[in-house]
Design goal:
The protein has about 450 residues and is mainly α. Helices cover about 65% and strands about 0% of the residues. It is built from 19 helices and three strands. A hairpin with a 5-residue loop joins strand 2 (about 220-225) and strand 3 (about 230). The two termini are about 20 Å apart. Mean pLDDT is about 90; it is low at about 1-10.
């Protein structure tokens, strides 16, 4: 098992590449034309829209008892995996690799889509900070200093970049010492920051919590401006994404790193890197960072070129539109890691029953068999992956168009969106090309 990369490529996706590329670009263009003709006014307002959940269900979701249960579950699972990471053997049968690279990194997406900001509820760092505050008699939300607004999600963007570097670039990604060191640093940085700035630091600096919270904006569960728990369409929920500093950088890292996972295996990159007398790690680091900057930079350029309504600064436009990249993140993650998550995820569940690889069966899953149904149905897999990328971009265009109806002057509502549409078409073609040719 190779835990640091997704599996799949052109060899298992029997679909016409020119047809897929043309179809993806056409889908975005047609969607945009339909929106321009039929969507003349903003329709999304997360602060007021949504159907309230039944009172008993809302009380149960917001109850202290459920929060306690989720904290305990998160701490127990973390302790179980830490046991495997510290005491287990350093080989592929240790479940630590699958938990980190499959269940945590990829599993955040389906869990957050189905359940909302799931990681926040089980976040072991948040739970430890809460326990430490209770013991010391302090308030978890209070720190020594107030976190400046300009910090935003920049710490999370750097944390995500550090994680994907470990996963995709580090030659030691499949050694336990690397994972131990990375997560020790992660716990230390987030906990110390929470002690200094309060638990708001966790919400802006924990890369996994931020990732989960952003993806949960596409779930049907949300809150109105008055805090009421509601169910509503995912796009209405997406409208409530706060335009924080660093949001564009965060989604740029998420999209760019997924694209890099494919691009680094491409023939073009292999030929280019082979012709340079440069060590692979620095070169791959530059490639990863460059691709993330390119994704975020193109989006920032396209949105900065828009002319906003009076009272809205042009430099604020990228973060005001960055929520439209979240469906693209989900689409890329689904297309790139679907078979990886399903198949290696099953193997991880089997390995979890024997954390020390000594023949134990603590969870009763050691005798389960992995189903490779997806890999054995390549046409179905190909269609799902292509639809994930195209569908993510179409939803992104819808979200961006609705925001444009609110933020652009009437005379610029059509022409102002064209640069962003061009960027999204570029993303679509690039994503499909990497998916189908690598």
């Amino acid at each position: 098992m190779v835990f640091e990369h997704g599996i799949g490529g052109s060899q298992d996706l029997p679909i016409s590449i020119p047809l897929a590329l043309a179809g993806g670009a056409a889908a975005l263009a047609v969607s945009f034309v339909v929106l321009v003709l039929a969507w003349r006014h903003p329709r999304f307002d997360a602060a007021t829209q949504g159907h309230p959940l039944p009172a008993p269900l809302a009380r149960a979701v917001d109850s202290g008892a459920l929060r306690t249960v989720m904290r305990v579950v998160g701490l127990l699972f973390t302790a179980y995996v830490a046991w495997a990471a510290v005491a287990g053997p350093d080989n592929g049968a240790n479940p630590t690799f699958g938990v980190v690279y499959v269940i945590l990194w990829v599993g955040i997406v389906p869990a957050s889509l189905l359940l909302g900001p799931f990681y926040k509820a089980v976040n072991p760092v948040r739970s430890v900070h809460w326990l430490m505050s209770r013991v010391s008699g302090g308030d978890p939300s209070e720190g020594v200093f107030r976190l400046p607004e300009r910090v935003g999600l920049w710490p999370a963007a750097l944390g995500l970049l550090a994680f994907v570097w470990m996963e995709l670039v580090s030659p030691d990604a499949t050694f336990l010492w690397t994972i131990r060191f990375w997560f020790a640093a992660y716990f230390a940085i987030v906990l110390v920051g929470a002690a200094v700035f309060g638990d708001r630091w966790i919400a802006t600096a924990d890369p996994f919590e931020v990732f989960s919270t952003l993806v949960s904006r596409l779930s049907p569960w949300g809150r109105r401006g008055d805090g009421t728990l509601v169910v509503r369409s995912p796009l209405r929920n997406l409208d409530g994404t706060p335009p924080q500093a660093g949001l564009t950088a965060t989604v740029g890292v998420l999209v760019g790193s997924t694209a890099w996972d494919s691009f680094q295996d491409s023939l073009a990159w292999q030929r280019f890197s082979a012709g340079l007398d440069v060590d692979g790690v620095p070169l791959d680091t530059v490639g990863l960072v460059t691709l993330c900057l390119l994704v975020g930079g193109l989006f920032a350029l396209a949105t900065t070129l828009m002319t906003p309504v009076p009272g809205v600064e042009r430099r604020a436009m990228p973060n005001l539109f960055a929520h439209s990249m979240i469906p693209i993140v989900v689409g890329y993650m689904t297309a790139h890691y679907l078979s990886y998550f399903v198949e290696v995820g099953q193997q991880t569940l089997i390995f979890l029953s024997d954390p020390l690889v000594d023949g134990s069966d603590h969870l009763g899953t050691a005798d389960l068999q992995v189903s490779y149904w997806l890999s054995l149905h390549p046409t179905f897999l190909a269609n799902v992956k292509v639809l994930s990328i195209v569908g993510g971009h179409v939803l992104g265009v819808v979200a961006a168009h609705d925001r444009a109806m609110r933020l652009l002057p009437r005379r610029h509502q059509l022409t102002g969106q064209l640069p962003l549409l061009a960027v999204m078409v570029t993303y679509t073609i690039g994503g499909l090309y990497l998916l189908l040719t690598v």
